[in-house]
Design goal:
The chain is mostly helical. The protein contains 5 helices and no strands. It has one domain. The structure holds zinc ion.
């Protein structure tokens, strides 16, 4: 797994850490309902992102999450807009679609399960 530099991690804001946590949660919900491969926690996470270990998912979803984390750490924008309004479109083709699909599916699932509190934090 790719290692993230201390410098990059020091630049992570609480908002970004929360965004990544939500993405990990949503990916884990999506993975549980779509993938049958064995799920594991994300490993080798830095201390600042240790809370992401609570969301196990399959190997391909872990790869997806690692990519998302890497992109977020390398985002060139100083004042980051909400990613869906971003002009840079850092998620490479394929990943962006997967992000959308995961968000749509897991958003609906969480609403059905009455976990609006989690969505609330994500959307507002
Ligand atoms: Zn998966």
């Amino acid at each position: 797994m790719k290692k993230f530099s201390i410098q990059q991690l020091a630049l992570l804001t609480n908002k970004e850490k929360k965004d990544l946590k939500i993405l990990a949660l949503f990916t884990s919900v999506y993975c549980r309902d779509h993938h049958t491969a064995e799920r594991e926690s994300l490993l080798a996470l830095p201390e600042q992102l240790a809370s992401l270990k609570s969301y196990p998912c399959c190997a391909s979803c872990r790869e997806f999450l690692n990519y998302a984390i890497e992109r977020r750490l390398n985002c060139p924008l100083e004042e980051k807009p909400v990613c869906k309004h971003c002009q840079v479109h850092c998620y490479r083709s394929g990943y962006r679609e997967k992000v959308r699909e995961i968000m749509r599916y897991s958003g609906k699932t969480l609403i059905k399960r009455g976990r609006l509190d989690l969505l609330w934090h994500y959307l507002f």
